[in-house]
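Hi team,

Filling in the usual template for the complex we talked about on Friday. All components are listed, including any nucleic acid strands or ligand strings, so the model treats them as one assembly.

SUBMITTER: L.P.
PURPOSE: interface mapping
COMPONENTS: three
RESIDUES: 1064
SEQUENCES:
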Amino acid sequence: MTRPGLLAATILSAAGLAASTAAAEDLTLCWAAWDPANALVELSKDFEAQSGHTMNFEFVPWPNFADRMLNELNSGGKLCDLLIGDSQWIGGGAENGHYVKLNEFFETEGISMDDFAPATVYAYSTWPKGEPNYYALPAMGDANGWFYRKDWFEDPDIQAAFKDATGRDLGVPETQMELMEIAQFFQGREIDGQTRYGVSIFTERGSEGITMGATGALYAWGFKYENEPGSYDMEGAVNSADAVEALEFYKELYETATPPGYTDSYMEQSLDAFKSGQVAMAMNWFAFFPGLYADPDVGGDKIGFFVNPPQKVAASTLGGQGISVVSYSDKQDAALEYIKWFAQPEVQQKWWDLGGYSCHVDVLNAPGFKDSAPFAPDFLQAMDAVQDFWQEPAYAELLLAMQKRLHDYIVADQGTAQEALDMLIEDWTEVFEDEGKI
Amino acid sequence: MTDSPITRVARATPPGMARQVRGLSDRAIAWIFVAPTIFLLLAVNIFPLIWTIRLSFTNFKANRNRPVEWIGTRNYERILTDSDIWLSMQATAHFLFWTIFFQVLIGFTLAWLINRKFKGNDLWTTIIVLPMMLSPAVVGNFWTFLYQPQIGLFNYVISFFTGVDPSSFQMIGDVNLAPWAIVIVDTWMWTPFVMLICLAGLRSIPEYIYEAAEIDRASKWRQFWTITVPMVLPFLMLAVLFRGIENFKMFDLVVQLTGGGPGSVTEVTSINLKREAFEKWRTGYASAYAIILFVTVFGLASIYVKALNKVKER
Amino acid sequence: MSAWSITEPTSRQKWIAGILVVLYAVITIIPLIWIVATGFKSPADAISYPPKVLFEPTLEGYVNLFTTRTRQTEEYLAANPPQTWYEEIVRQYDMVIAGPSRYGERFVNSVIIGFGSTFLSVFLGTLAAYAFSRFKVPLSDDLLFFILSTRMMPPIAVAIPIFLMFRTLGLSDTHLGMILLYTAVNISLAVWLLKGFMDEIPREYEEAALIDGYTRFQAFRKVVLPQATTGIVATAIFCLIFSWNEYAFAVLLTSGTAQTAPPFIPTIIGVGGQDWPAVAAGATLFLLPVLVFTVFLRKHLLRGITFGAVRK
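RESULT (copied from the run log):
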């Protein structure tokens, strides 16, 4: 590295690369262990070849992901140089100084947030929400969607039976209530000599599962967190009559149309139920759709996809993450170099091709995008109407309260929907009072 | 403690004698030997304990860098009036009571049987002891597999003997069964501990007492209640004390088995505390909670030890 | 115990007692056998209904435990035939081995932290136990009680200030931090057990050595230590088993570099949910050392348990 030639080359490139090629670093990127993570490993090989840095990965299974990564950030750990953290962490990441603010870097490198879909920039990058302070680059667009057994839906015998039972034609549900009707129709039905069930939904207690699942119904009924955005005035919004109805709907769906034993199921269990042929429909994140479509048993012609059906309004629960540089890292320059590389349109295109969900407008608006995968149009449609949970720095407290109230009501069958939501307002009020926001 | 003649002689040795020997003085050696341990315990136990007490009067949150305020006893008031915390105390009490009940019952019976000294009892004792040596987290995690409604071995065995459909009940997912699911695994793991202590108790009973009873023509039944039980009782009570303290602290096994669910029916205090401290990051509040738990276990244990000493004196 | 003893159980009683105990032992060991067996099942066999007792053993679980795998295109698979037996196993699912998994590292962490803390707690514990046993340490009864009472704190409660302390000192997720922590937890039991063993060694030996011109320290090293070996070994095994099995501190205070196996094993996942054969394989390898210890050192171990408990 001390040879004059190399030194000169370094100085020359320093103008563009901010003195980053000085040393080959060992970078660690932390993310959840799931399908897209494997695609990212594949994609990152190009970065290793171009930059000379080595990429290591720490992938944590979803049920432990938030727990472990937030613990890591809060202990000021140096495990991760780059972190693809969940969208709700952005508030805490920014306010507690876990994430490096990227505005200056974006400016010097000419990375424009206008090149990324506005909904994703809003959700994954900004804090306070919607203001041009960026703490992450949108890395993985995602929303909660649905998929179904197309082969069963197109089976004439099943179609006839459905018509008999309901008087309607069997098809992709247009509303939440239709979804329940179809799910109940399939519940306990014999198909090809096996008992099948209606739908697999999220009911997990430990991390965020049941909240992410139930909000799919709540948002479709027009659920709002506050009467006025930013007012923390929740009475009448969180526990509105519509919200109560939506929650009762989700509980009924759980009780009448899910396979036995799905009391604590999240992504993996939902995939499992669908892949093993137990259920006719399932909810899950778009992130899994490429893998499902490629599945040898239930993929290809046998699977269809649809966006979270509206009831009163069209809305989907937001998933997805931005990529951030951890402020405790000693290798921030090399980490920023990765982000710079990742933001390039060509890399973003390859990211989508490999199974990641790019948020780059060049990729999403490309003429061939809608035909590039059967779920591509659905993805665009879902991302048009996404809603996210609180992204407050105290999000973990807010989420845990909701997890408890929902699981107590839906799975443990305690109290009523009205009571669950009333208690949730109490919990949340307490949190915001502690925060000094009310 | 062991006041043998030898030690008495040793103690009577004039202190000057030791001082005459070369090298460091005894007093210096004593301090050098004890100091590292005391220092480590001060650093890792006492200092943190004092810090926890301090924190418990603040609204500190370890994941935030906002100014910390003194809020007096507010955390304590909130905890003691929080109905959710009382529910988790109840879950702990249920777990404590039934695990101890079954472990004492089965453990004592096993010890009593093993004390019959049949051939090979050594080998079988070792096998019975195995579960308590293993990592509760790793084993607890595997029990979730045994408890799976359709494919799990536990449900299958139950259905084999009772005829119920193995997919008709969920040990972990059902509100009524989950509290028993954790009791079963804990009993499986820790009955051997109670058994070993009881065995030590049984073996400490001198043979001649039974012989004397035999001469008095006391029935076996009477011998059991008038000799065996009272003599083993102090040991049994010790075993209960240890199991009580351990299960009051219970975290790893239950967190792996049910995670506190469904709803919050198996959310024992340690899990509840973990959520407050390391998921919600309400450090001050959780510190107060920790102190309350510590005082509770310490208080209960002290009362219990007093009772135990009374039993011993008899 | 003479054969004439009137309290000796009859052979019929022995038979009944034996049968009942063996029955319990068999029931109690089934879950452990099931762990070992599941490690050698294929994923399909592991989740079959009814549960399979007889199956064709495979090393899939172990391969999955030690590797990470990715799906590959048919062209790639056709162009790169598998080179080794374990690649062949992975190929059944149209996958290729992408690299090693983290299990090896976690296991090594468990070894480093387990042995490190055991060594330290036995070393310090022996010194302290000797001092408590032989010298008049002021307030020694109070100190001993205090040392023990620290074990009454729930680990989660202890972890709150430790977490803050480690964060300030930069000990989070380090081997050193975990070794110190486990040592502090273990040392109370170590001192307590070892003091018992030391008390049983007659003082006359040392006094004789002192008169022969040994220094106190030499007497300790050359006379007392050799006699205390059994007790030290038994104590060491206890400390090792505790650190080996510990979960609560490990899950809260480590995230990667120093993470031990117990928090890691339950997070082993495969395609769609937990990969039970791999989890079982990981559990088997992890539990095996303790099982072996227990069986071979049962005399010391069982004595230690009752001794440690009863003396407290």
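MY TAKE: Residues 83-114 of chain B form the longest helix (32 residues). The mean pLDDT of chain B is 87.

Thanks, L.
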